[in-house]
Amino acid sequence: MKHFGSLLLAALLGSVITIVASQWLVKDQPQGVKIEHINGIPASQVAYEVNEKGEVVPMDFTGTAEKVTKAVVHIRSVQERAAGNESQIPEQFRQFFYDSPFENQRPQQSTGSGVIINKEGYIVTNNHVVEGAEIVQVTLNDNRELKAEVIGTDPDTDLAVIKVNEKELPYLAFVNSDQSKVGQWVLAVGNPFNLNSTVTAGIISAKGRDINIINSGSRGANGQPARTAIESFIQTDAAINPGNSGGALVDLNGGLLGINTAIASPTGSYSGYGFAVPSNIVSKITEDLIAFGTVQRGWMGVEIRNVDSNLARQEDLDVNEGAYISSYGVDESKSAAKEAGLKPGDVVTKIDDAPIKSSSALIEYVGRKRPGDKINVTVDRNGKTMVIPVTLKNREGNTTTVKREEKPELASLGFELEDVDSKLLKRLDVNQGVKVKSLTNSKLKRTGMREGFIITHIDDVPVKSAKDVDEIIKKKKAGDLITFAGIYEDYPREYIYALRM
After folding, report:
1. Percent of the chain beyond pLDDT 70?
2. Which residues are CB-contacts of 62 (< 8 A; sequence separation ≥ 6)?
3. Model's pTM, two decimal places?
4. Fewer beta carbons below 10 Å: N end or C end of the chain?
5. Is 158 an active-site residue?
């Protein structure tokens, strides 16, 4: 027993010595890093939501992401672009280069995103994604590729509607963007850098942002650039990059809050903020484009400025926010505001029940209206509040429906035609024909066709005038093959050029 006690004491002393020695030996050595693994996904300590059962649970974006990505598509558009060195070749020598890069057109491709908005195949995207496109290709979330038709575009909002010939597609429903709030969680869904179905999360950072980025190209009566763009963006810190254009900004229920359009960045890539066209604007524009082919936009006929402390002091105003009416614009005779009794110097503070705190808020609200719509405008005039009813007009100063400008089908192909003198036809020994007067940057030029070509037949049908050509082209559908047969004045053999519509 005594011997056992000695052994136990020796063992304890040995353990103590071992522990002390090990601590002394590793005191100056790098300490190990413990990596802990747990099962499942760690929950956020700050982001929670209430589920359908009324339980407080960690916020989860997976259900919304799965729903939304099915309705967001990838868009590839092809435009024609002139070869850069063509102008350096003298006209008399260009005939020898029409099979070379000097004469051929280089197609320019652009990519972006789009959102399916109903099961009939209508898709909303940005105007700059499809502007000038001859071919629009849509890739669905399930990798099906479809050709799309451009239904209509609106440069003033940078929106466009295209359509694919497919039914029962998944789509997103619009929600009221007016009810969205700063600080609200949102998801941005699109195809940045051709990375399909990318989802990013963030919050609404601000509303009603005017960043002066949309250049519609509109001009006023004096020929000067007119500020007709509607910019009242939803600003978000959800990551948006090139390729996200036309994609969806959604709430956590998957409702469409806006169409992602622009980023604010010194590098051209994401650096903190993106901007989306609010869904209430998108809804109105898309409905107009589908129903009329063009936007039915109401106009007050005023030039406005933001009210701030400087303007309030300068003009001795009694309010510090709103939209200050500085004039009736270029053509006073077309101003709905002047006809209703609004005056320069008035500050618009409310329209109907919507508060107006800036000029962009006024432009956004009026931009949702159509010619003939009536609005009640609340203004501050020399410290007195007045409510003035205004009937909005169109840009021409009346309330009729604006019709889409119909362009001849041959213009859409990029060429202009003129009649051929009967004496020339007789000399060339042909019975009929129409001459290509000008040939703009189009796929026709890639076929080798040149200015001066006399078209005698299209698809073996004789043509005698530009009207004949236009009527034939009108009957063509996307994907149809069309052939142009004819001769050149100095090369009296027959040439045939073919292209697919």
Report:
1. 77
2. none
3. 0.70
4. N
5. yes
